[in-house]
Amino acid sequence: MTSISIGLVGLGTIARAQHLPAIAATHGMDLGAIASRNAVLDGTPCYANVEALLQAEPQITAISLCTPPQGRFDQAMAVLRAGRHLMLEKPPGATLSEVEALRAEAAARGLTIFATWHSREAAAVDATRDWLVGKDLRSIRIDWHEDVRKWHPGQDWIWAAGGLGVFDPGINALSILTKLIAGVVLQSADLHIPQGRATPIAADLRLRAGDVPIVASFDWRLDHDEIWRIGLTTDQGTLLLEDGGARAMVDGAPLAAGPNQEYARLYARFHDLITTKHSEVDLAPLRLVADAFLTGQHHSTAPFQP
Ligand code: NAP
């Protein structure tokens, strides 16, 4: 197996919790260097920014970007222009047009670009998709509720324009939804935005896929255990996909469950894409969020106190 030396950019919450262990566990991939303005990792070459890393480490052939979506475009372009393969945390960019530009740049240079959606790799998502085959889908309900203070402490970028607000977790649900079924269209949205902030703390979406109605409720104002659930009602029972896709039940009976292998699967896929000279960029989840920002009714809510 070809060994790929990878550079990790943005040593924050998700890089430490998921990317570092997943890279360490991925056959044929090793961590070559880190770029972070403030953080360092003992025993690994560290640089203040991606440009310095790219210049100093020519043997690093792939970069994984774990920075916030705002500002990621320039970092991503620098990676591709330096001739390195690129993996992007979700959402792949702050806008659709910048991700399209990155896709075109990678294609023109014969490089791999991989826009990841980690929740699609959750343990029960594939089993759910298999279970839906041959069934008549009647309706879908998404509830994605969590405590923003627990999951996003100190993340000012998430409240700034381009930071998505409650769509930062909500887009995970939409990434699963658009893996399960095709042709999802947004009909209307209500966005609840705290005074003085640019992004919503809660959002209610009404969508359709053909004649299947879909409602989604995203809310960050929960003060107890999170709910990350998608309910799919069919002519042959109701499947509840729980815990962000980790567990599926059909009419109360377990269908599938498993440990969290989301990032291990993403890095294995990145390795495959590089070695087979392919790319993967699916913008469907980000397009639905963009549509919600385009058409959503804005409602001003109480200021958010961190
Ligand atoms: P985070 O904890 O705020 O970390 C982001 C890191 O990026 C920071 O440590 C920071 O390191 C670096 N950075 C570079 N430019 C920055 C800027 N302008 N503002 C703030 N930080 C900047 O964020 P995160 O939770 O890891 O999220 C990063 C990305 O991963 C987001 O797109 C998010 O949606 C995604 N993600 C997060 C989670 C999660 O549970 N947290 C799960 C899945 C995906 P330096 O300051 O040292 O440069």
Can you put this structure into words, describing what you see?
The protein is an alpha/beta fold and 306 residues long. 31% of the residues lie in helices and 29% in strands. The protein has nine helices and 15 strands. The strands form two sheets. The chain has a nine-stranded mixed β-sheet, with helices on one face. A six-stranded parallel β-sheet has the order 3-2-1-4-5-6, sandwiched between helices. A hairpin with a 2-residue loop joins strand 9 (202-209) and strand 10 (212-219). Helix 1 packs across helix 8 and helix 7 packs across helix 9. The mean pLDDT is 97. The structure holds NADP nicotinamide-adenine-dinucleotide phosphate. NADP nicotinamide-adenine-dinucleotide phosphate binds next to helix 1. The site of NADP nicotinamide-adenine-dinucleotide phosphate has 21 residues, from helix 1.
Could you give the count of β-strands?
A: 15
CATH classification, class level of the largest domain: Alpha Beta
What is the terminal separation in angstroms? 47 Å
Number of helices, counting only DSSP H or I runs of 4 residues or more: 9
How would a textbook summarize the main sheet?
A: 9 strands, mixed
What small molecules does this complex bind?
NADP nicotinamide-adenine-dinucleotide phosphate
Could you estimate the helical fraction of the residues in percent? 25-40%
Structural class by helix and strand composition: alpha/beta
| Morphology call | globular
What share of the residues does DSSP label as strand, in percent?
25-35%
User: How do the strands line up in the largest sheet?
Assistant: 14-13-12-11-7-10-9-8-15
CATH superfamily of the largest domain: Dihydrodipicolinate Reductase, domain 2
N-to-C order of helices and strands: EHEEHEHEHEHEHHEEEEEEEHHE
Mean pLDDT: 97
Number of domains: 2
Q: How does CATH name the architecture of the largest domain?
A: 2-Layer Sandwich
